[in-house]
Every structure is written in structure tokens, then in C-alpha cells.
Amino acid sequence: MDFKKLIIESGKQLIDSGFTIETWGNISVKDDETGLIYLTPSGMDYCNCVSEDVVVCNLDGTIVEGNRKPTIETELHLSVYRSRPEVKAVVHTHPVYSTVFSCMGEDIPLLIDEAAQALGATVKTANYALPGTKELAEACVHALGKDANACLLQSHGAVCVGETMDAAFKVANVLEVTAEIYYLIRSIGKPYIPLSDKNIEAMKLFVKHKYGQDK
Q1: Structure pTM?
Q2: Which of 9, 33, 65, 73 is catalytic?
Q3: Tens of pLDDT along 170-203?
Q4: Could you tell me which residue ranges the Class II aldolase/adducin N-terminal domain spans (predicted)?
Q5: Are 171 and 150 in contact (CB under 8 A)?
Q6: 75 catalytic per annotation
Q7: Which of 81, 149, 185, 202 is the 20 to 30 Å CA partner of 62?
Q8: Structural domains of the chain in order of their starting residue, each with its CATH number
């Protein structure tokens, strides 16, 4: 697979999806065969990036290819990969509705079937830390835990993970839709009806073993 091309295309997808604006947000992917991490460059327009702009590093952060500065959140990405070996892609977004809840320091529950299937666990808000710091990386890893596929960064945005880039973007989509629904429920002023733990587990098993053509 051409991982540099994947990063370039995913950067454009990040903008086209409305998950961020300007040069905010960042993306990475892990090559399981080599253990190398491919990252978006810092502060560059994703629509104008080319393969030579992608930065490649080891899991310890040592840059092995590329002349650009990597995303300021490199340590966050690497910390997620070190903590969750099954993760192969990380997408850091700045979506509107999800960020509303991050600014309130609130978690987003699994209140719809799609959330139960894709998000893995309640989407927790990580304690505030400055962008690009080790403290933010540690807070992110703590909020994700071992089961969640997304977390919120207080007053900042969201981090979504997956076993593929498509899976990570699916998580980002489902998270933002869930956040918007939760926002609308809260604006009406009535409580939502929670899904039971039993039904949440059933949804996870359904998408893992039954949903789609190859299962």
C-alpha cells in the first residue's frame, strides 16, 4: 500500500468532510509490516500537500523520512499506537457538535445503535492540556482506554481510531452524528432513553460477525 498517498487523500477527506478547517486536525497511519508511522506535516494546507510532505517516523518518534516538521500532535498519535497495538489509523478532528461537549467537559453516551456499533464505549472527554504536549497525549490515551474508538479533548476536538483509515473516518462520522443528536435532545430538555449494556454488546457482536457481505 502507498501510505503516503493514503495520508494525502485522507487529509483532503478531512477538509471535505467538514471535520476541521484551515490546517487544523491531523492524521496518521501505521504500516504494520515495518512499524513505521506516516504523519501529516505541521501547518500545511491539506489540499496542497504532496507525497514528499508526508513525514515518516518510528514508534519512538525518530524521523526516518521527510524534510517537513510533523504534526504538533505527533506524540499523541504515537502514544495511541503504543497503547493500542490493534490501531492502524488515527484521525484528530475539530468537529462542531463533538467539540461543544468537549468544551463542557462532558462525555457522549452510546445513545444510538450506530454509536454502539462503531464507537466501542462511551466517548469520554480527556482533561485539558495544551496542544502538542506530552500531558495531552497521556490524557488522550487515558480517555480512550482499551475499548473506546474515540475520545474528546477538552476545549479542543476529538480523536478517532480504527484498524484502517476507513474505519477511523467511520468512527469520526458516527461520533459527530451522535453528538449532534445528543445536542438536539439536550436542547429539547428531555432525557434520552439509554441503550442497555446487553443491547450495546449485541450491537458490537452484530457488526463484528454479521453485518456486511463477507461475514
Answers
A1: 0.92
A2: 73
A3: 999 999 999 999 999 999 999 999 988 888 888 7
A4: 5-183
A5: yes
A6: no
A7: 149
A8: 3-209 (3.40.225.10)
